Amino acid sequence: MQRKKQDGGFTATPFLPSTVQDTYHALKTLRNLKALCLKIEYESTTDKSLIKWLKEKKLEKEPKIFYFLIRIRQITGLIIDKSLVKKYIHTFKGVINLERYFYLAKLLEVAKTNLANLLRIKKNLNAI
User: What is the mean pLDDT of residues 87-112?
Assistant: First the structure.
């Protein structure tokens, strides 16, 4: 818990501010450690500073960060607006590289949408 910041998020190093990526990986790691039956005193669903931090975050334009924000919401027990996720996917504009394509596909999983729907954004596919 040394990487937990006062703002509610997590960081890779105590000298930097919290980030969405670091927070996602910290929460995922803590959840995996609990699954291994290790005694972890932290509970993300009741961490008020984390939930406040998360609610203050704007949904990012970058698919990777958008995905991490959505997954953090799931981990903390917040409701996911699947229509918002679907809208994000179908209105995404920008060059689509392999990483972006990957995270758009991951967002489809979150939204419980068929992977074939990802092909609808293929018209934006400028580079893979």
Answer: 86
